[in-house]
Amino acid sequence: MDILYELLTLQKIKNLKILLVNTSERVGGAAIAASRLMSALKHSGARCSMLVRDRQSEMISVTNIRSSWMLTMKFLWERMVIWVNNALRRRNIWQVDIANTGTDITSLPEFKSADVVHLHWVNQGFLSLNNIEAILRSDKHIVVTMHDMWYFTGICHYAGNCDRYEKGCFHCPLLTRGGVFTDLAKKVWERKAEMYKDANITFVGCSQWMANMAQRSALARNHKVVSIPNAIDTELFAPHDKTEARKKLHLPLDKTLLLFTCQRITDPRKGFSLLVEAIKALLRQQPQLKDKLTIVVVGGDSSKAQDLLPLPVRMVNYLHDEQSMVGLYNAADIYVTPSLQDNLPNTIVEAMACGLPCVGFNVGGIPEMIDHEVNGYVAEYRNSEDFARGILWTIDPERHDKLSVEARSKAEETYSEQHIAHLYNNIYARQD
User: Fold this and answer.
1) What angle do the packed helices 322-331 and 242-249 form, to 10 degrees?
2) Nearest-angstrom CA–CA distance, 30 and 20
3) Dihedral sign, Cα of residue 50, residue 56, residue 58, residue 59
4) pTM listed for this prediction
5) Alpha helices in 197-294 (DSSP H)
6) Domains observed in the chain
7) pLDDT digit string, tens, across residues 360-384
């Protein structure tokens, strides 16, 4: 019976046209995840394409809306409204989106010909609330992957300690009180509630943590919510010779390398300050390690790490080329991710696929990825001393090789293209 069901699903998928929608093709975690999903779906036999605002390749299966000065004006207008309602302050202005302007994609041929429309991250002036409502009211089958919390909160991408999204957002704590127009969080929340009413949506969390929060939200709890992780090409992201990888990147051959990456180390949510505390705690416990460890920092503002970390630092600008990232993961010994709130970071998936044990805090989707003391170490939340213990435990040469094997095995079993495409194809097929 299972084999028959699989055959029927595959046949149904081949008759469906799937359109993935994301603001960018390759810039940002959601864009990378959406692009990898498109590749996975194609390899499974599905007919899949992608519609974006910002295109970074010449792939025939990726199209973008027509660029114009109006797109820039729409983006600036949204930021202006947020800025004014934030009492003319820039504080947290990039942590929220109000989707008050965008582009109607329902008239495009790519949309009209699609059977399934799969929304990903569509913020920063790409789709407005009105545009999203038009998509939900169309005759298409709608799937929404939640790369952050925005679809089920008022305006924020990550709510932190705030739980107002469970009943109804108002006076968002991310914004400064004293704005001159309106309560943006309440206004957008009520608009989303109106949009979602009677809509047939399948919400997908990239982690069970995200799915659980969506189910607690008054916006999403009456819809179907499932959890499917991001896909990874385990043939591209795979273990290679460490010495050769280090030689290519001009990294020291005789040091234990810790790898830390993020778009900007100045983003408080990425927890760089706690990494600094953990390294200091580590050296207090074993000061002789200062001559044996080096930390590789990748991302925007990485130059600031030089003065903050009490270890030799190698700085690398943020890498968009996947082949270069594979080399970087293979050059390192462990991956450290002190993030304070995260969904299902692509970087952990990538690192594990390359056989790299990871150390992270017990928060968000991270403990779903790192199996404590099996393929890495899950430290107590915000506990830099425990994070330091995790680094020490993970770099121990007596267990490091086994951890590497387990990390690779977890990536192959849980995040492979074949497995993730299978899970999504089941959702698409049931929508018919």
Assistant:
1) 120
2) 12
3) negative
4) 0.91
5) 208-216, 242-249, 272-285
6) 2-231+417-431 (3.40.50.2000), 242-414 (3.40.50.2000)
7) 999 999 999 999 999 999 999 999 9
